[in-house]
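Customer escalation, tier 2.

The customer says the design service returned an amino acid string that "doesn't look like it belongs to this structure." They asked us to rerun it and document both sides in this ticket. The original structure tokens are below, unchanged.
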């Protein structure tokens, strides 16, 4: 796909959306970022739109070549909001003829007993949220728009605050305080570097052979959570201490409020078994591989160090 004057429209200006905008701009694309406020700290056009307003979506996507769904919805709103967001994206893509790239989760696979997850892993979610994501994914893939789904694990990296490997780890680590961790920290756990997520999304948006299927973004799965934290400690010259939540709870814990913890309880299994993501398909097809975790942690620590006392929002 030629990059000349093609418009790539990115919905959502959280870590994935903002990092994707930077990646697309660096590739020479014309980029429009869309959120509810019409404001975002990016060097691209930013407009306001409500994804659930189908007419607004048709308008804001009218001249798009590629549309990216990087929108975030709080867990407690998923039942009501995710189907409406999907309807908006499908309307925008269908009316413009644009291809649609969807940022997706691993929740639909459910517990795997530690078996590596591939794009062909059956959907056996035991959680309501996992079953909902499975239904949403199936509707995308059976729609009449050109679509591809990019599945990632827990994000980490610059701009990523609200994550199990985000502010709950890096802020206290830099302050010499115990870091927060979930479940069994001696199990391998998958982490997706936000720069790799953005590169995968941008590549999938450019390539015809990406369409009509699911791809796992390049993800690191060969470290336990404790080992990842130890790598952070090595870079800080300090021994990392932990405040571990061993089991799901509906109470506030650490930086996470009670609403989040209650909603997340059904997904807690991810931290009680090995979580391993097979990303060979995207490596074989597009040459995309995970950034070495040591390099990614260096960049992440540099970003966290650069933060001022001003609040950082996602």
């Amino acid at each position: 796909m030629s990059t000349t004057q093609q418009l790539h429209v990115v919905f959502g200006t959280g870590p994935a959306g903002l990092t994707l905008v930077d990646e697309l701009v660096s590739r020479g694309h014309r980029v429009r970022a869309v959120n509810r406020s019409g404001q975002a700290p990016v060097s691209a056009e930013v407009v306001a739109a409500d994804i659930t307003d189908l007419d607004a979506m048709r308008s804001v996507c009218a001249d798009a070549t590629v549309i990216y769904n990087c929108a975030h919805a709080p867990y407690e709103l998923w039942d009501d909001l995710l189907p409406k967001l999907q309807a908006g994206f499908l309307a925008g893509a269908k009316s413009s003829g644009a291809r649609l790239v969807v940022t997706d989760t691993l929740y639909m696979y459910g517990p795997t007993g530690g078996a590596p997850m591939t794009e062909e892993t059956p959907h056996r979610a035991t959680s309501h949220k996992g079953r909902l994501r499975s239904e949403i994914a199936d509707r995308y893939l059976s729609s009449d728009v050109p679509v591809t789904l990019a599945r990632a694990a827990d994000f980490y990296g610059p701009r990523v605050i609200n994550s199990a490997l985000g502010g709950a780890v890096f802020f206290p680590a830099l302050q010499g305080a115990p870091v927060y961790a979930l479940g069994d920290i001696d199990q391998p756990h998958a982490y997706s570097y936000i720069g790799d997520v953005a590169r995968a999304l941008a590549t999938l948006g450019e390539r015809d052979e990406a369409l009509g299927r699911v791809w796992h973004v390049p993800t690191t799965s060969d470290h336990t959570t404790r080992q990842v934290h130890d790598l952070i400690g090595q870079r800080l010259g300090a021994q990392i201490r932990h405040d571990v939540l061993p089991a799901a709870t509906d109470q506030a814990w650490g930086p996470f409020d009670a609403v989040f913890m209650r909603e997340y309880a059904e997904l807690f299994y991810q931290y009680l078994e090995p979580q391993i993501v097979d990303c060979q398909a995207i490596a074989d097809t597009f040459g995309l591989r995970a950034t070495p975790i040591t390099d990614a942690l260096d960049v992440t620590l540099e970003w966290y160090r650069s933060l001022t006392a001003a609040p950082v929002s996602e």
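Tier 2 assessment: The sequence is consistent with the input. The first helix runs from residue 15 to 26. The chain has ten helices and eleven strands. Sent an explanation to the customer and offered a walkthrough call.
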